[in-house]
Write a structure and sequence with these properties.
By secondary structure, the chain is an alpha/beta fold. It has one domain: Alpha-Beta Barrel (TIM Barrel). The N terminus is likely disordered. It starts with a helix and ends in a 9-residue tail after the last helix. It is built from nine helices and eleven strands. About 35% of the residues lie in helices and about 15% in strands. The protein is globular.
């Protein structure tokens, strides 16, 4: 654990202009556990622009037990937000994909060959429960690939039941799964084990995307004062980060 905290003095202020595009957030009003209403959506998006972002790909949950979102529902909310941004003269590009929970509903979508909402081309943001390990994580990711999509695993560091199970991460990476870091995971806000997993994955060059996973104003306040370690700064300024091409 010493390595996580010993380089505090080497941290620098996060420069969001290096990322350009945030590809994981919950900004569409009233359809998941993110922005509850349009007013909040617009306030949060305005603050994204102030941070230095030029594009947002917002990703509402599709988690059938809780959030029965469909492409039509998401597209309608996106248009509502776009119109409000125009009325408020907030000039920032916003599109929508989804954060797909790998559950029975997702299996059904894949079996029916339903068109998924993608981050770019065939890249799909996916997640598992952060509390309980699924019985078939590798198989679920493989099913996404077999359907012609490239899974991006959202916040892999938050799956604390995989703590120190590094072989699992290496195996799915070798099989073509992409990794997305939650920026706030490195602050300890999700707990020390999440921070340690994030540091391991960062140190070993797993991440190709970074995202805010922003749900509410509390997240935004922490993003505004975020200090990042040298290894993350290197990712942001190097060629491996794919956010810049979105």
């Amino acid at each position: 654990m010493f390595g996580l905290f010993s380089k505090k003095n080497n941290k620098t202020r996060m420069d969001y202009t290096l990322v350009k595009t945030d590809m994981h957030s919950h900004l569409l009003p009233g359809i998941d556990d993110g922005a509850p209403d349009l007013e909040t959506s617009i306030m949060l998006i305005r603050r994204f622009k102030e941070l230095g972002y030029t594009k947002l790909i917002t990703t509402p949950h599709i988690l059938w037990d809780l959030y029965k979102n469909t492409p039509d529902i998401i597209e309608n909310k996106l248009e509502l937000v776009r119109n409000a941004l125009k009325e408020n003269q907030i000039d920032i590009e916003i599109t929508a994909a989804a954060e797909y929970f790998l559950d029975d509903h997702m299996t059904e979508l894949l079996q029916k060959k339903e068109k998924l909402l993608t981050i770019k081309e065939n890249q799909v943001l996916t997640e598992f429960s952060t509390m309980h390990k699924a019985l078939s994580m590798k198989e679920s990711l493989f099913d996404v690939q077999m359907a012609g999509y490239q899974p991006i695993l959202a916040h892999p560091e938050r799956y604390v039941y995989l703590y120190k199970k590094w072989d699992f991460f290496h195996e799915i990476k070798d099989n073509g799964v992409l990794f997305q870091l939650n920026l706030l995971s490195l602050t300890g806000g999700y707990g020390s084990r999440v921070q340690e997993i994030a540091q391991y994955l960062l140190d070993n060059d797993f991440y190709t995307f970074v995202g805010t996973d922003l749900h509410h104003e509390g997240h935004m306040s922490r993003l505004q004062s975020l200090q990042i370690p040298e290894k993350l700064q290197n990712l942001l300024t190097g060629d491996r980060l794919l956010n810049k091409a979105l």
